[in-house]
Amino acid sequence: MAKPAFKPGTAVRVRDLPVKGHMRTPGYIRGRRGRIEVLQGFFPNPEQLAYGAKGLPPVPLYLVRFPQSEIWPGYGSTGDSLALDIFEHWLEPAET
Amino acid sequence: MTHDHHHDDDAHGHVHPGKGDHPTHAWERREAAIRSLLIEKGLVTAEEIRRKIEEWEQKTPADGARIVARAWSDPAYEARLLADANAAALELGIDSSAVKLVALKNTPRLHHLVVCTLCSCYPRTVLGLPPAWYKAKAYRSRAVSEPRRVLAEFGTVLPPEVELRVVDSTADCRYLVLPLRPAGSESLDEAALATLVTRDSMIGVALATAPA
Q1: Model-level ipTM above the cut of 0.85
Q2: Domain, as residue range, for B42
Q3: Structural domains for chain A
Q4: Which residues contact A91 (CB under 8 A, 6 or more apart)?
Q5: Does any domain span residue B154?
Q6: What's the pLDDT score for residue A76?
Q7: Which residues of chain B neighbour A84 with C-beta distances below 8 Å?
Q8: Residue B167 C-alpha, separation from nearest chain A C-alpha, in angstroms
């Protein structure tokens, strides 16, 4: 199993990969910048698992937290946040 | 539209909107087609499918409520729950091993709200099947984009100084909210505490019930 690329607190951006079909990265979060909250573990890649393959080796899955104001222009409450689980290949380091 | 003749459910094999049910959606027809193929090919039996549905429909939020009540009563258990919710559930005899379970602790400054924007991922092993609104597009889209308004529609108004953190269960983890223990519940034992823990408080659209 590969070592996870990101540590908690690291600034990351969600990539907009041209994946067709089944994947677990919602459109609204692509291109948004957040921080790694925690590594949830290693899980088979759902993009392959959905089509009968084993999705191995397992991919690191992180809970990533974003300020709501980073996602929705005009979101009112500045302290609010949104977190979701994102597979490592959808993340790239972001400038801070 | 009324019918005075009798129909066995679906036995006649055509769409029948007048039956009193909603019209059959294309997805339901696809599901029915895949199901009969799986049965025809001997991969599953109708009895196995029926039993699985029965099993899931018999699970209730009572298991989740027991977990929360224990966490409220025992700080060491709460710490174990936050570190490994599957193991903590198993301590109470609750098997949640089908999927990774994660507990989200509410505090006076932080409130969690759970949604699945992509489908209807839900901590079924501890809460049972999700309510219909949880699977509705309106909840799934608005819970991420205007969560405070959604909460207000459920009767939950958060003070502005409380951080509202929406957790979108997009992948392999299922999230259980550990609600704030209500004021006035200090003298209650675990069983009495569990009665204050509603399904909605473990999704995060409501607070735990205040003791009577």
Answers
A1: yes
A2: 25-57
A3: 11-93 (2.30.30.50)
A4: A5, A6, A12, A13, A14, A15, A62, A64
A5: yes
A6: 83
A7: 167-171
A8: 5
Pair (B126, B153) in one structural domain: yes
pLDDT, one tens digit per residue, over A19-78 is: 888 989 999 999 999 999 999 999 999 999 888 889 899 999 999 999 999 999 889 877
Residue B110: CB atoms within 10 A of its CB come to 15
Q: Which residues have C-beta within 8 Å of that of residue A77, sequence separation ≥ 6?
A: A68, B148, B160, B164
B3 in Cβ contact with B18 (< 8 Å): yes
Q: Is residue B141 part of a domain?
A: yes
Q: Answer whether A83 touches B (CB < 8 Å).
A: yes
The reply to whether B120 belongs to the active site is yes
Query: Quick check: A73 contacting B, CB < 8 Å?
Result: no
Distance from the Cα of B1 to chain A's closest Cα (Å) equals 41
Chain A residue numbers with beta carbons less than 8 Å from the beta carbon of B144 are 28, 71, 82
Would the CA dihedral through B166, B177, B101, B97 be positive or negative? negative
Question: Which residues, in sequence order, are CB contacts of B25 under 8 Å at separation 6+?
Answer: none
Q: How many domains would you assign to chain B?
A: 2
Residue B28: pLDDT band (50, 70, 90) is confident
Q: Which residues of B touch A72 (CB under 8 A)?
A: 145
Q: What is the pTM of this model?
A: 0.89
